[in-house]
Every structure is written in C-alpha cells, then in structure tokens.
Design brief:
This protein is an alpha+beta fold. It contains 15 helices and 25 strands. The protein is globular and about 60 Å long. The chain starts with a strand and ends with a helix. Bound molecules: adenosine monophosphate and glycine (GLY). The site of glycine has 8 residues, from loops.
C-alpha cells in the first residue's frame, strides 16, 4: 500500500523502518535529509512539515492511500483534517483531537470535566499578575509549563529548577515576555514518584497497549540538568518496568481509555498513537502529559520489537477496526541518543558524523537517524538529537551492554550520550526510590 510518512527524526525513521518491514511503498516528507528515511522512500519531499498544502499535494500526486504523521506540529497545523478531506486515510489525530497534546489546559480540563483519575491540581493564566496572586495562595510545590508546544523543553520544576518564589516568578514572566509556547502558563501540582510512558494504538474507541517505556528527560547523567526531548529510554522483556506492577499498569490504561472515551463524547474521536506519560506515585499513576503521537525516543524502543505489520495496525487505527492482536517480541531494549554538544542549552551543529550500521547490527543493536542532514555529500549534525542507538537483549542489562558496544560505531567529535541510561545502577535506583516512597 502507498503510505505517506511525515517527519524526519529518530521516531519517524523507526516508523518508516516498521512500515518498510510490512511492505509499504513509502512517500516521505521531512525538513532535514534523513538518510535512513530517504533510502526507504519511493519518493521524498524536503519541506516544512507544517506546510499542509504542499504535503497534501505531494500525497495526492503520488496516489497515497494512508498517512502516518510523526511530530505534533503538523497535527496542530491541521494536516490530518486536510489529508482526510483529500480522501486519504490517516493513522493520526485531527487538529481537534490533537488538542490533548497541543493545549495542556485543554487536557487538564477534559480530565477534570469527565471525572477521570490521575489528574493533578492546576490553574492556567494569561498574565503574570494573576499567576503571582495564585502562587501566593498555595502551599505545595508546583511545576511551571507554557500552555502551548515547546518540544518538551519548556517545563521547570520547583525544587529542581526553581528554588524560590522569586525564581518561579522570574520564569513565569520570561514565558509571557518571550511568548514561549504562545498560549499562557499552566501551574501544576508537583507529583513525586517515578515516571513511565504508556503508549497505545487507538482507533477512535479501542486501545491496544504497547510495552511500557521509561524515558530520561534530563540532559545529564544522574538525572540533572535542563529538560530535553528525551535522552534515552528502555523497555523490559515482560513489557512492564521493574518498578511498575500489573496493577499500576491497569490503572494507567484505564486513564488512557477514559480519555479516549471523553474525546469521542466531545465529538472529536481520537485515532492514532496516544502517548500517556505518568508519574507513578504512592497514590497510583498521575498524568504528567498526554501526547498525540509516539514518544521520541520511546518509539524506537517499541517499534524495534513490533512483530505485527505496522501497516496493518495503521490501517486499523484509521478505519476504526483495531483488534487486540498486536504483537511485540519478548525482548528488552535500551535506547541512547547521541546528541550534539550543548544540547538542552545551546547546541553546536554542523559537525560531520558517521554511523557504521553493519557493525552496530553485529552488536545486537539498530541505529536510527534523527536530526542529521546532508551537506556537501557529508552527514552532519543538526541542533536537535542526532542518532538513536537501540540495543536489544533478553534482559535490560544485556540490551544496555549491546547498546554501549554499538555506540562505539557512531563517530563524531561534538556529541555526548547519557551512558547511565539502562544501567543496572540507575534502574535499581528507580526501584529503590519507588520502594522507599511506598513504605514511607
Ligand atoms: P513534560 O514536557 O510535561 O513532559 O514535562 C517534562 C518533565 O517535567 C517531565 O518528564 C517530568 O519529569 C517533569 N514534570 C512535568 N510535569 C510534572 C508534574 N506535574 N510533577 C512533577 N514533575 C513534572
Ligand atoms: N520523549 C518524550 C516525548 O516524546 O514527548
């Protein structure tokens, strides 16, 4: 089947690879020349992924039947609405359904109005004065978020990034003055626990869960530094995580199902991958954010072990015929992102990077190209994450060791990696942290 794939990151390379495995004929649109995606494309177009008219024209010209959209920005620009109008089926949400991600206040209000579990107390503001007045009335720690999209980088947490009332107000003013996210500020109760990602395939009504993943948002080893889009992630062979019980997972899935039901009731049924990010607290999973797409890096973990035909899954999401029979292999995975020097603060870009895919494959790993580009015949780094390396294994430890061996075959002199992701020490710290919270 002729399939349109939009996006040029590691997440999209993993999706394109999964579609290729299932026999799709691919037509890909991205802004950077991602070599992993281009080599799988029958045709590709380099352009702004939010340029809805150009993308739809490219899809129509090439007789595309089904579309998969990787990133959130084109969803917000209404790409799915336009593709559907042109008669193309979409395995991604409409602009109205994607508000679950594109407006953090829409998400919190929907969850509140429908009495769904897992909400955190919150208040949204369109000016700094009102936010300040609210801040003076509360006695718990909060998290400051721009309401609109910021690529995962706009969130600051009291007690981690913000250490006083003044710090907090300074950041709130910065968001308004700089119009960061473009839609005001939301102040949320700070949840304490361990984070995990539950992604599901959704067809408007039904959800089918993927393996649980833990991402690492902080830029530096030991979970310190600024928030990033995600530095790396792991899954376990039983599709749970070492600190998450079957019961915790059921609670998270009930929340995702309730959100899908609420969106259908509100007249904007959700089709596509839904990403639930949860903080597992002593009172069960709390919603940190809901995204209208695969997580990046999380997509690379789960799509590497997807055994079912991804094209079939996408078609079923688009047509509302999702069955319960989506299969993932019983392997653990560890993904570490190679990112440009300065990433998270101010990236250095334009450095040559080389990836020996054959050697990586011999290590029991796969490499996915992300924000790299071709310049004068050479592969160079961009300002965002460069290459994701996913190690596979029977256990997290084995997958981590394979990932580390594979990383030696990615060469560049201006990059860094969080080597602690998926190590026995860091995973054990998560388990111990959860145990301590539960017994306190
Ligand atoms: P987000 O972009 O909403 O995923 O936030 C980025 C990171 O900030 C998350 O991965 C969490 O580590 C942290 N964070 C966001 N919201 C909260 C919250 N309400 N409580 C505690 N931590 C949070
Ligand atoms: N890895 C987090 C995200 O994709 O939003």
């Amino acid at each position: 089947m002729k399939v349109l794939a939009v996006g040029g990151g590691g997440r999209e390379h993993a999706a394109v690879e999964a579609l290729h495995r299932s026999g799709s004929e691919l037509y890909c649109v991205m802004k950077n020349a991602n070599p992993g995606i281009i080599r799988r494309s029958a045709k590709h177009l380099l352009c702004d992924e939010k340029d809805v008219d150009r993308v739809v024209a490219f899809a129509v010209e090439n007789g595309v039947e089904l579309a998969f959209i990787g990133p959130e920005a084109p969803l917000e620009a209404g790409i799915v609405d336009a593709l559907e109008k042109a008669g193309i089926k979409c395995a991604s949400p409409t602009k109205a359904a994607a508000r679950i991600e594109t407006s953090k206040s829409f998400m919190r209000k929907l969850v509140q109005d429908h009495g769904i579990d897992g909400n955190l107390s919150f208040a949204s503001f369109d000016n700094a004065g009102d936010a300040e007045a609210y801040l003076r009335t509360i006695d718990h720690e909060i998290v400051v978020k721009p309401v609109g999209l910021t690529g995962g980088k706009g969130v600051k947490v009291q007690g981690e990034h913000l250490h006083s009332f003044d710090d907090t107000m300074e950041y709130i003013r910065e968001i308004f003055d700089g119009n960061i996210g473009g839609a005001g500020v939301i102040l949320e109760e700070r949840a304490v626990g361990e984070e995990f990602t539950q992604m599901c395939f959704v067809d408007g009504r039904h959800i089918v869960p993927m393996p649980l993943v833990q991402d690492h948002k902080r830029a530096y080893e030991g979970d310190v530094g600024p928030n990033t889009g995600g530095m790396g992630s792991y899954t376990d062979s039983d599709h749970l995580l070492p600190f998450v019980t079957e019961e915790d997972r059921k609670a998270a899935l009930a929340i995702v199902q309730a959100i899908v039901d609420a969106l259908a009731d509100e007249g904007c049924p959700y089709r596509g991958v839904m990403y639930g990010q949860f903080m597992l607290t002593v009172n069960g999973p709390k919603i940190i954010e809901i995204n209208a797409r695969f997580g990046d890096p999380e997509a690379m973990n789960v799509l590497t072990v997807l055994e079912s035909s991804f094209e079939d899954v996408c078609l079923a999401m688009a047509e509302g015929t999702l069955g319960a029979d989506v299969k993932f292999s019983s392997e653990a995975t560890v993904c570490k992102y190679v990112v440009p020097k300065g990433y998270g603060v101010k990236s250095e870009s334009g450095h040559e990077i080389s990836v020996d895919e054959e050697a990586i494959s011999k290590c029991g790993a796969v490499a996915y190209y992300a924000n790299v580009d071709m310049k004068d015949g050479k592969l160079v780094t961009g300002t965002s994450r460069s290459v994701g390396v996913v190690g596979k294994g029977a256990t997290i430890e084995e997958a981590e060791a394979n990932c580390e061996r594979a990383l030696e075959h990615v060469k560049c002199d201006a990059v860094f990696v969080r080597h602690d992701i998926g190590t026995r020490e860091l995973v054990q710290r998560r388990v111990d942290h959860m145990k301590a919270l539960r017994s306190a």
